[in-house]
């Protein structure tokens, strides 16, 4: 293993940035109503570093949101997200509730944001049993399960919902349900790859897919034939048949040395694609298929560039 590849592997051990993928997933899930909504990532409260994870504002207050996770929405909707390795605590609830109150009070004019125009959504990977027991026993709230993974917390002037990602129905919330580091459902994998294949140029899908691959990298390696082969099939389609064209050129080449160069280049591109997929660098696969200079740069990075090419 060369040093460049070893460094790339070390780099992958850094902390995964889940929030950009979550922000992308929220927009994918609510895309049916996207024309009616404004999405703000890490909305800052006041001048000090207090940030709401996601703020979703309805353009038209009376318009109903069709998606299951958005039916509770009113005009101003505050969303708190916890990554798969984090948990939703009792104090997290009070922090977000405080953010909602501060957001209301921080408007340009007094009572410009009505209290009845606010909602809170709490999103986490596992059911927060301690928090929910606290809300039932101490706050006297009533917990109502609306459907798989979606709970309404009733009893407050501000509507609150809990979204448990691991419980969501993948047929209804595929991209949120896939935002995990334990992706092992064969049907979900096929669904994700299929939808992604139809949205290759969409930055939201690319952001979400990048995180899915990085967080489940072990399953995309040789040990998990299903995921590895499915992903490779997908990206061989993205390559615009470049490898096959190179092989065809090699067969037609009169000069034996030229043919050998082209064949070697085809082999290198195959190796590069496999390495990039293994490292979860989806954007680089697509860019390399379109930009020959960038492709050469990546070949050099991984020690695959032959002097003959």
Automatic annotation (TrEMBL):
Domain of life: Bacteria
Protein name, per record: 3-isopropylmalate dehydrogenase
